[in-house]
């Protein structure tokens, strides 16, 4: 995912309260100090993974929230320091790529479970619970055979090439049998072990300057391969319902969510996406669809205007529906901040953004899970795409030392614990 590279400075200056918090964050990091010497955020030790005095997991557990992170054993195959960090911090483990259809069934009927197995085994070995991310991915993550035949592009009037392939054989006739086949195969291999399952990922439209109205339907859905094959044009918002019902029948213990991104910014398309999401969630609850919550990817963007008022309203509306909130892929993107800013200025801005966002969620919704898109910044996709920047999108650095982002989240959670329990379900 990439948004417009246009630079935008923070929409307002930090308040006096936030400036005071910035100073207080230093106290939290100082709690990571050993008997002598600099904080663990400042000192590189040979082991590199000294535990902070307050873990994110402990701060979450005090509020009844599960804490965790993504891990992909084929991107970072052997990393004992990362394993120790995951063991210390994680109640849940998400296979970053291992649970995606295109990875574990790259050819029809041919399964490769290695990456999925590795994440499940890691979760078991550290006493955590695995998630399944994701079954339906409307835009990406599908093998060529699970795309529409390229010859149908003109017929359907859809210009987005990602939904089509010369090897594509997905159709109205086989979409259901393929879906149920994958669900059954995963159930047979792992059983009903998953804490959360992302039944559908990024099925709502992502507007860009090049977008064409025909790329989305009137309910906000992408007119993608799943929408076409499952009859979205005729069934309207109900085209997703059977998929949730089938997954619930196979995995009755799992929390089923619709996983989405791109709703936090004060821009028109994200505000419209919020409205589309809320409309569908409202209808799904009314229709008795077995959905337990909304998965908010929470890829926050520093330097873009965060829509606190809009998010609070959205979260309260989700709460009124009786749905919980799962922060499924949290990180903070610093690539829109001025290149002239110091590391400290960037870290401070990112920490404040994370604090505002998390406080809004805690105060307006039932937060059940906080899952990072990697605990260590060097393993996050932003770091892979911008290696020269050495960004800090995650709460720990490459030596498993806590960053200011860690301090901001811990202090926000502890603030909530002091003022009142989070409304976890």
From TrEMBL:
EC id: 3.2.1.8
Keyword Hydrolase assigned: yes
Species lineage: Bacteria, Pseudomonadati, Pseudomonadota, Alphaproteobacteria, Rhodospirillales
Organism: Azospirillum picis
Protein's recorded name: Beta-xylanase
InterPro entries for this protein: GH (IPR017853), GH10 (IPR044846), GH10_dom (IPR001000), TAT_signal (IPR006311)
Annotated keywords: Carbohydrate metabolism, Glycosidase, Hydrolase, Polysaccharide degradation, Signal, Xylan degradation
Listed PROSITE patterns: GH10_2, PROKAR_LIPOPROTEIN, TAT
Similarity-based family: Belongs to the glycosyl hydrolase 10 (cellulase F) family.
Membrane spanning residue stretches: none
Gene3D superfamilies: Glycosidases
Catalytic activity: Endohydrolysis of (1->4)-beta-D-xylosidic linkages in xylans
EC class: hydrolase
Keyword Lipid biosynthesis annotated: no
Gene Ontology molecular function, alphabetical: endo-1,4-beta-xylanase activity
Segments forming domain GH10: 50-412
């Amino acid at each position: 995912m990439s948004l417009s590279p246009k630079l935008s400075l923070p929409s307002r200056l930090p308040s006096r309260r936030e400036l005071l918090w910035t100073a207080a964050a230093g106290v939290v990091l100082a709690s990571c100090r050993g008997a002598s010497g600099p904080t663990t955020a400042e000192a590189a030790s040979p082991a590199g993974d000294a535990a902070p005095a307050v873990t994110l997991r402990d701060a979450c557990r005090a509020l009844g929230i599960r804490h965790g992170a993504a891990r992909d054993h084929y991107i970072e195959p052997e990393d004992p320091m990362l394993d120790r960090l995951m063991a210390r911090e994680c109640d849940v483990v998400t296979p970053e790529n291992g649970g995606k259809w295109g990875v574990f069934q790259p050819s029809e009927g041919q399964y490769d479970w290695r990456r999925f197995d590795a994440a499940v085994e890691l979760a078991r070995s550290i006493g955590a619970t695995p998630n399944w991310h994701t079954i339906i991915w409307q835009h990406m993550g599908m093998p060529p055979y699970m795309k529409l035949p390229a010859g149908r592009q003109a017929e359907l009037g859809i210009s987005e090439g990602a939904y089509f392939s010369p090897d594509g054989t997905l159709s109205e006739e086989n979409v259901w049998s393929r879906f149920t086949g994958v669900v059954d195969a995963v159930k047979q291999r792992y059983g009903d072990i998953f804490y959360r399952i992302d039944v559908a990922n990024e099925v709502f439209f992502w507007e860009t300057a090049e977008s064409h109205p025909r790329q989305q339907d009137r309910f906000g859905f992408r007119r993608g391969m799943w929408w076409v094959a499952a009859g979205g044009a005729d069934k309207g918002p109900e085209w997703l319902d059977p998929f949730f019902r089938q997954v619930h029948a196979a995995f009755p213990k799992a929390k089923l969510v619709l996983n989405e991104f791109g709703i936090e910014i004060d821009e028109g398309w994200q505000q419209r996406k919020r409205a589309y999401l809320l409309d569908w969630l409202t209808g799904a609850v009314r229709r008795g669809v077995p959905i337990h919550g909304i998965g908010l990817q929470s890829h926050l963007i520093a330097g873009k205007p965060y829509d606190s008022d809009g998010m609070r309203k959205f979260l309260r509306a989700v709460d009124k529906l009786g749905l919980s909130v799962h922060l499924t892929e949290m990180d903070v993107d610093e690539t829109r901040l001025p290149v002239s800013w110091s590391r400290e200025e960037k870290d401070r801005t990112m920490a404040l953004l994370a604090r505002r966002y998390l406080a809004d969620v805690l105060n307006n919704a039932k937060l059940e899970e906080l899952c990072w898109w990697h605990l260590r910044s060097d393993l996050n996709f932003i770091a892979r795409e911008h290696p020269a920047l050495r960004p800090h999108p995650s709460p720990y650095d490459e030596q498993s030392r806590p960053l200011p982002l860690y301090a901001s989240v811990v202090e926000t959670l502890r603030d909530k614990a002091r003022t009142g329990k989070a409304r976890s379900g």
